[in-house]
Here is the input.
Amino acid sequence: MITKIENISDEQLDMIRKTVGEAFVTNELFHNWGSPDERREDVLTYMALYVDYVYQSGELYANEDMTGFIGLEDSGNKPVMPQLRMLCRMFTKVKFSKIKSLLSFVKQISNSNEKYVKNRHIDALMVCVNKDNQGKGIATELINFAKEMSDSSGLPLLFDTDMEEYAKMYQHFGCELYNTVTADNGVTRYSLCYKQE
Here is the structure.
């Protein structure tokens, strides 16, 4: 069963930060930050700030034993203060050169999902399964939960990924790959949508 994460201890939140951070070290989003070994600490720092944003926004969900996490945001209900806090902290915790290269990439791929973002939708902010628990159906449980939220709200569910294998996984779960954009660093952003038929 997937539930919203609320009122957890600092130790639990730190465990989530580390789990999510480790899962994203090899993500192509951070391609410009060097090899996975070179970028590990910076990615862990960045993703810790991102997890804090998703948690403080009330958009972080997990399975019962907290080995799988998903962030789900209703575009009609975006919280502003947690996002501003994340951006301020990011500029003090992450090297400016890393932020600059990430923003350059984001700018190039920012229109990849314009087909759906003009209207209210649900954004899948992240999907993450602890490395020791992958292959046990946890990602299926998380994605099915997101699809049920989409069905019950009548809103399309959007996934953006920079990893071809994840794009294929989302397609396996009934999402339509409706756009790809390749940045000048060779990284491709895959935009996918699930909506009830």
In short: The CA atoms of residues 160 and 191 lie 5 Å apart. The first helix runs from residue 10 to 24. The two ends are 24 Å apart (CA to CA). The chain has one domain: 3-194.
